[in-house]
Amino acid sequence: MARIIVVTSGKGGVGKTTTSAAIAMGLAKKGHKTAVIDFDVGLRNLDLILGCERRVVYDFINVINGEASLNQALIRDKNCNLLYILPASQTRDKEALTQEGVGKVLDELSKDFEYIVCDSPAGIEKGANLALYFADDAFVVTNPEISSVRDSDRMLGILSSKSRRAERGEEPIKEYLLLTRYDPERVKNGEMLSLDDVQEILSLQLLGIIPESKSVLTASNAGVPVILDEKSEAGQAYADIVARYLGEDCPHRFVESKRGFFSKLFGGKK
Amino acid sequence: MPNNLPVLEFKSSTFFAPILILFNNDIVGIEEALEKKVKLAPEFFKDSPLIIDLSEINKHSKEIDFVQITQLLRRVGFFPVGIRGGNEQQNQQARELFIPIDTVRELTNLIITDEKNKPEVAQKGDSQAMPATKQETINAIPPRPVYVAATLVTQPVRSGQRIYASGDLVVMSQVSAGAEIMAEGNIHVYNTLRGRALAGVHGNTAARIFCFDMQAELISIAGDYKTSEDLNKQTYRNPVQIYLQNHALIITEIV
Ligand SMILES: Nc1ncnc2c1ncn2[C@@H]1O[C@H](COP(=O)(O)OP(=O)(O)O)[C@@H](O)[C@H]1O
Ligand SMILES: [Mg+2]
Fold first, then answer.
1. Cβ neighbours of B179 in A, within 8 Å
2. Is the pLDDT of residue B212 over 90?
3. Chain A residues with CB inside 8 Å of B174's CB?
4. Is the pTM of this model over 0.95?
5. How far is A185 from A213, CA to CA, in rounded Å?
6. For B98-147, how does the pLDDT look when each residue is reduced to its tens digit (9 = 90+)?
7. Which of A184, B72, B143, B154 minimizes the number of CB atoms within 10 Å of its CB?
8. ipTM summary value
9. Which mutation among A41, A139, A212, A216 tests ligand 1's pocket best, with the greatest number of atoms within 8 A of CB?
């Protein structure tokens, strides 16, 4: 049986797709056969970030509608042969995504994969609800700003009440916080919420902090998940997150600004 | 293949429906009072089943048109599912509307009302068994107060979530901004309260709210409320209790 991870947030543009691609690649690199599914029908971002957009023939909805088999639709990643992508449809309407259809696809994938990563669309509508419905674990992607934290809180309410686990009275979905686009300098200047501010509202298990980093954009333009850029802080942060998720002991990084140490030495001058 | 599976089964069960006690035949007044109630907790009242209690009205021999009352309740969003304390004519009207007639257990000592200042309508939550058969009225046994178990919540109550307790509500975890907790009895929050808390929602003016870390968006007892704008900065982020005194919400720190 596969473990199903939903990457969710409520708010758009916080880094869900970036995170989905990175952690799916991270899990596969660690030797776990992993599938990553794009639930964002109509937008199709995941295949771009994973650089396989030109190899998309069939999509998630083709499989749901029985127009293609899973094997036909799954795209094997060019960098890692344990990673497979199930792309979203760019053209079809969202109504084609049904709970029954999604359940069937996940069941079939579960037989063959260790992890299934579901990249949720923004919002609290059908697509987002379906992406989380079957989840075992939720990676709640949050930016250090109040509207994102609020939306994450709302998403957590949905996770605990509208999921299959909740409906069946099973053990609840495990919820983890991923604080992304974190900029310690801006936190210090009061332009962004701090980790403590966010945790005061969400009180979740912190899986990791991903710093704001130019390498994310560079990576997505190149169609390579940022986790493969081992020199970048964002890449390292995602690698840490995968390791922590798999149970490795790995102290948190990127909370303090690098300049913090020196500015303390020089009397707080910047 | 022969199908030996039974097609149905009867199970005994309890059906929860609040009881609406009417004190007055003033239809306009009733409508206004109901709309006010519904506004307070629209999600809770939406499509709620309801038992209409006419014993008070009939005690004072006031005329009331049951059909009109039923129409009014449906319009406001309720589903009348029973009548109790009706006279012969009212019961007949109920039968014609396919509304079951409930034989009344004596209820008066359970109704929470202020005698001097009787409201237009009062509601009393009650776990009301609604079997197809008639209940025997047991007159010999004095009525006992109904004990409603407290509701315990240990998971965080997140934004957009709503919790309703027909007795006391005890919350061990945080209540987020945008969340709403409601109880017919008292509310205890042994954590941070950032959302809305409404105690005594059926008119129990003796209900209280206790909370460990007061940052609420709104607090209300028996319909009297304060929003975060009116909340005292002194009690903000402190452990407090909130109670009603002459229709005024009093907030005091617990030390
Ligand atoms: N850690 C980061 N540092 C800098 N930019 C980031 C970071 N994470 C995401 N972004 C950028 O934010 C934008 C939205 O990211 P995306 O993953 O598509 O969000 P979502 O899927 O939540 O809508 C993209 O332009 C992406 O490059
Ligand atoms: Mg996305």
1. 157
2. yes
3. 203
4. no
5. 13
6. 888 876 443 333 333 333 333 344 444 444 434 333 344 444 555 566 67
7. B154
8. 0.81
9. A216
The verdict on the CB of residue A232 being under 6 Å from ligand 1 is no
A-interface mutation test, from B159, B161, B180, most A Cβ less than 10 A away:
B159
The Å distance, Cα A204 to ligand 2 centre, comes to 22
pLDDT recorded at residue B11: 64
Per-residue burial over A116-144, b = 16 or more CB atoms within 10 Å of its CB, e = otherwise: bbbbbbbebebbbbbbbbbbbbbbbbbbb
